[in-house]
Amino acid sequence: MSRAELRAVGLVRRYGGLTAVDHVDMSAPPGMITGLIGPNGAGKSTLFKLLTGVEQPDEGAVLLGDRDISKLRPDKRSRLGLVQTFQVPSLFTSMTVRDNLLVGVENRRRDYGGGLFGLGVRKNPSHEQVVDDMLASLGLSDLADFVAGSLPTGALRLAECARALCAHPDVLLLDEPASGLDAVETERFSALLRRIADAGVAIVLVDHDVDLVFTVCDQVYAMVGGKVVAHGDPATVRANPTVQSVYLAQGSVAA
Amino acid sequence: MVSVELAIAGLAIGAVAALSGIGLLVTYRTNGVLNLAHGGIATLVAYVYREMTVEWGFPVWLSAVIAMAFLAPGLGLLLERLVFRPLARRRASAAETLVASLGVLVLSLGMCAGIWGLGTRNDTPSIFPDERVGSGSWSIEVDTLSTLALILVACVFLGVVQNRTRFGRQVRAVVDDRELAEMSSIPADRVAAVGWAFGTTLAGFTGVLLAPRFGLSPYGLSLVVLTTFAVIVAARLSSLPVAVLTGLAIGIAQSELTQFSVTGVFADTYRTLTSSLFVVVLLVLLLLSPKLRELGGDAGSAGRLSSREAPERGTLGERHKNLIIIFAGIVMLMAPLFFGAADLRKAFLVPALALIFLSLVIVTGYSGQVSLGVAGYAGLGALFSLKLEAGEFPGLPEMPGLLAILIGALLVAPIGLITGYPAIRRRGLALALTTFAVGATVTVFVFNQPDLSVGVYAEPLYLGGWMLNDKAFYIVEMVGLGLGLLAVYNLHRGRLGRALVAVRDHTEGAAAVGVDVRNLKLLAFTVSSVVAGLGGALLSHSTGSFSSTQFEPMQSLLWFTAVVVFGADSAVGAIIAAAFIVSINVFFPEGSSTLAVGILALSLGWLPGGLASAVRGLVRFVALRLADEFVEPEGTAPRPRIPSQAGVLTPAAQPTTGRSPAAVAPGGGVTVDLTAVDRVAAARGLTLTPFGRSLLGRLGGGAPAAALPVAASLPGPNGASPVTAGTGTLNHPEGGRP
Ligand SMILES: Nc1ncnc2c1ncn2[C@@H]1O[C@H](COP(=O)(O)OP(=O)(O)OP(=O)(O)O)[C@@H](O)[C@H]1O
Ligand SMILES: [Mg+2]
Question: Which among B328, B335, B331 is positioned nearest to B676, based on CA atoms?
Answer without folding.
Answer: B328
